[in-house]
Write a structure and sequence with these properties.
With 130 residues, this protein is mainly α. The chain has one domain: Response regulator (Rossmann fold). 45% of the residues lie in helices and 11% in strands. The radius of gyration is 14 Å and the shape is globular.
């Protein structure tokens, strides 16, 4: 997960836990670190991520740059990707789709709605296992 807001990262973790999604969660706080991390996976004997959650508004490198870079890596290029953004601009949604995001979700404002996202994350993880 690439998220510049620690509170949102915590909410995603909580949503996954509430929906009984198990697995390793890696939280990266800026786009530059995310790009370096994804590129480093290609040189390591590790499994690729099953799901990547990206915010478009990241420091150092934008979420758009992260999306472009992840599709160029061997291990991340086929991962399921969700853009989780505070934006609801049509251009942001179009850019995310063009850059290979599987879903674009506007960050909910309420806690219950945010926790409910866990069902979507779980569904996406199930789809990546097929």
């Amino acid at each position: 997960m690439v998220e510049d807001n620690p509170a949102d990262a915590g909410l995603v973790r909580r949503a996954l836990e509430q929906h009984k999604v198990r697995g390793e969660i890696v939280i990266l706080s800026d786009g530059e670190t995310a790009i370096e991390f994804m590129q480093s996976l290609d040189t390591e004997p590790v499994d690729p991520p099953d799901l990547i959650i990206v915010d478009l508004s990241l420091p150092r490198r934008s979420g758009r740059e992260v999306l472009e870079s992840l599709r160029l890596t061997q291990k991340c290029r086929l991962a399921r990707v969700i853009v989780l953004s505070s934006s609801d601009a049509e251009q942001d949604q179009a850019d995310a789709a063009r850059l290979g995001a599987d879903r674009f979700i506007r960050k909910p404002s309420g806690l219950d709605e945010f926790i409910a996202l866990g069902a979507i994350f779980k569904e996406m993880l199930g789809a990546s296992a097929k």
